């Protein structure tokens, strides 16, 4: 009874510490692994002494295996084959050539600088070829890096984990068995990968069938069935060939995610929660089992080994694997900097330490210590600076251009043309054939279908553009479309025209911004455009007259004479949200209502044109001081900032 209570206490402390670390990370916007490592080390036997993972015995290996299966499956779920297809060659090189470069570079650094024997140095390098998807994915969400770079880093992290883990176990088997024939080792690697991939593909397909056709089961029960099938597949693969289970879990997740399963997001949410719990428990336990004395005993050579891995081996890896890619130099620098090691690296190293000790081979604790030193240095240095580096290199998703616009009406076509003139990719979506023809006449890419279908949004490339704008004539439909786009694709900017905000579900979604102005009647402005009763203007807010310019523009907006459409800041053109705060230097593009009859326009030599010209309009540029003086203090307070 006392032993069981001790084990229960260990697990409870681990879970509390792990979730506490996740909460702190969420509040401080710091990668969670930083706090997980810190809490684990503090609670371990070398500091406070509350956690003693060795009490779990072989149960620790069981926890590591099953939790790793969940983590890698969730990583597979996040693999978007469409996005991977765009960077397939580079990704293939990162997983193959990149693995070889890291393996060779890590071995040389560990042997020459860390003074490890060749066999142990090679084993260390085989462990650290993997990057950590459980570290990279939250990090990328936090800093919102551009989609192409994010896809590469996530794809590399997920795909290289099973390859690296199996490679490491093949190297371990070679060392323990004394087998020097490299052919056998290579064959063993491919056999494990093949077995794992076949079982995973079958299992992923089976899971998708369960979700599609088991209608009598609730979604909660379906999620648990998938978990049971996942662990069953993992054990089956491990039974057929050891360490093939890691490949099984990744492939199963990828196949399931790309099988067009209904309500897949519910499974993603469930698996995401399990992954957070698994990562929290594993890192706390493995960090608590780390001997600080063994880390400090490594010496300066091991520190230099990790530095060479970060600043020499990784850049060479990226340079070779992206040589013929369309990535720019800023993206390549960011890829060179971001390669944190994660939970798979830590768990494999911990299992290796146990295995080597059991077989009487020296170096198990040293490898574990060096791997954890690698994890700590890469996570702390790269994780804490990733946001600053991404902003400095200007590759955050805020810089992502292009737009998907729902609704082919005169106003939306005007906005699309303005973006297109800047060389940005624009995709229009509408169900009305005539409206689609009008967009095609403007040489715009059009999809004649419903934007309620996520497959249509995927076809439009929403996952790789900067802006989603819903501006049909139905405000409620616009809001629903924007909500779905935000939840499913999470583009940097999601906007919609929904005039009566209080009547839409009684609440607002923080991810969805109201476009243009609070009370915009699209129908009226479309009529103005069709009748030629508008002017297209631009104005730049300057420091000298900034306050008066704002007051004048807001007065025109309130009277319904002007609607702001776009604003340009730092050479980046964006749809203007209703709550946007203007700054000095902003270039505002707007429509000004010109209600003069067409006959009067012709008499005044105003030429009608279907194509509006972007100009500085005197009605806006020349701020009427007499009108400003008439605005009372009460009216000034009522002016809402756009």
Automatic annotation (TrEMBL):
It is a multi-pass membrane protein. It is found in: Cell membrane. This is Sodium/hydrogen antiporter. GO terms for biological process: potassium ion transport; proton transmembrane transport. Its main location: membrane. Pfam families: Na_H_Exchanger, TrkA_N. PROSITE patterns: RCK_N. GO terms for molecular function: antiporter activity.
